[in-house]
Amino acid sequence: MAKKNKSKGLGDTIEKITTATGIKKAVEIFTNGKDCNCNARKEKLNQLLPYRFKARCFTEQEYNDWKAFTEVRTVRISAEQVRYICDLYASVFSRQVWYPCSTCSPKPLIDMISKLDKVYETYIV
Predict the structure, then answer these.
(1) pTM attached to this predicted model
(2) What is the DSSP letter of 74?
C-alpha cells in the first residue's frame, strides 16, 4: 500500500479533496487537458498557509539574550520572562504573539522554550 504524502499546506489539502471528489478530473476534462494553473495555485496556498512553520535563525542579539536566559532560568519563570519567551517565539516562528494567563497550563510555555532551545542548540559547537 502506498504511503500518502503529508500536506505541506492548504494547497495540498485542497488538491487531495478535489482529487477524491472527482472535481480535479472534471476540470481536466472541461479544460481539454490545458493547464489551469492548479499547481501554481496549490504552491501559492501552501506558501500563504503552511501547516508547519519553520524557524528562522536567531539574530546575534537574540542568540546572546537566549544564552543569558538559559544561564539564569529556573523552574519558576517571572512574568517578564514569560513575555520575553512569547515575543521571541512569535518572532522566530512567524506566529502571532500569545501570552498564557498565570493560571493556564504551563505546557504551551514549556513547548515554546523547548523549540527555542532547539534553535539555540543549532549554534552550539
Answers:
(1) 0.59
(2) -
